[in-house]
Amino acid sequence: MLYPKFLKDKDTIGITAPSQGVGDNIESFEKSIATLKKYGYQIKETASVRNKGITSTTGEKRSKELDELITDKNIKMIICATGGDFLVDMLPSINWENIRKNPKWIMGYSDPTALLYITTTKLDIATLYGCNAGSFNQTKLHQCLKDTLEILRGNIIEQTSFDFYQKDWLEETDGYHLTEPVYWEDLNGEVNIKGRMIGGCLDCLKDLIGTSYDYTNDFIQRYKEDGIIWYFDVCELSVEVFYRTLFQMREAGWFQYIRGMVIGRVAVPSCFYKDFSYQEALKKLFPDIPLIFNADIGHVPPKMTIINGSIAHITCKNGKGAITQIL
């Protein structure tokens, strides 16, 4: 596994929009950029970052703008501007060979999943699932965002479960509105596992299964001696689609070397069958492996930053958990 160089003072971060552009959230985005500059970084945006629409521009142009940052020697890291739904449109035109030749950290979450996941599983280059460029828009940063900034500098800290989470997304709030107690559920008993981490937003990963962009089985074969810890961020999959997606992944061989699975809090939960839950779906599919549900990962803040491709030690007991990543 290749781990790109971490950031130093005055390094330049490149921001591109592989999915949607910032659109009407300019004020919030600029606040986030000001925070990154305050922490000592220079910023370079590609042309379509501030565009409106369901995508920032065409798939071909998004690939070209990504490539501009990949091949620019002055850019030390790339952060995706925001999420969306249609990053897949750019996959056929991405220059993967340039990414291989110019390894640098790429970070994002939600729809950028496919870019991160393929970079790690195809090219053996570690990526960061944590924040988009607009995530640092708080006057006083929450600890999870401070942790992310530490990790970007190579300080691979232990990340521990937080005390409270934000139940509802409040776009105009300066900082998270934390009201609900955090409780990591160890569905098959106390968890103490070690293995190589891979995953992302399940809503996006399901679209890669069995396609020409699915390098999963090659990846897990390479690292089968480490064992694989899967993590999934679930945005708006119903319990039924959640179950069928994990079933399809299992039958496609994705979980043959699994050591355990960590699922974040579901952002938009739903279920047609009132007597079937996400927890029951997991236990039905995986009755014998360590399972954690409602972890601090994904769309529902606060959230941890996960290094795709890293070795991780994960524990969970009595509602509390910790993730330590080892490069």
Topology (elements, then pairings):
Blueprint: E1 12-16, H1 26-38, E2 42-45, H2 59-71, E3 75-80, H3 96-101, E4 105-108, H4 113-123, E5 127-129, H5 143-152, E6 159-160, E7 164-165, E8 180-181, E9 185-186, E10 191-201, H6 202-205, H7 216-222, E11 228-233, H8 239-251, E12 258-264, H9 278-285, E13 291-295, E14 306-308, E15 311-317, E16 320-326
Parallel strand pairs: 1-2, 1-3, 3-4, 4-5, 10-11, 11-12, 12-13
Antiparallel strand pairs: 5-14, 6-16, 7-8, 9-13, 10-15, 15-16
Helix pairs in contact: 8-9
Descriptive terms for the model:
alpha/beta; Rossmann fold; Glucose Oxidase, domain 1; 2 domains; six-stranded mixed β-sheet; 9 helices
The CATH architecture of the largest domain would be 3-Layer(bba) Sandwich
Structural class: alpha/beta
Instruction: Work out the helicity level.
Output: 25-40%
CATH top level assignment of the largest domain: Alpha Beta
Structure summary, number of beta strands: 16
Model regions low in confidence, pLDDT < 50 over at least 5 residues:
none
Number of helices: 9
CATH superfamily of the largest domain: LD-carboxypeptidase A C-terminal domain-like
Question: In percent terms, what proportion of residues is strand?
Answer: 15-25%
The gyration radius over C-alpha positions equals 18 Å
CATH topology (fold) name of the largest domain: Glucose Oxidase, domain 1
Strand order of the largest sheet: 6-16-15-10-11-12-13-9
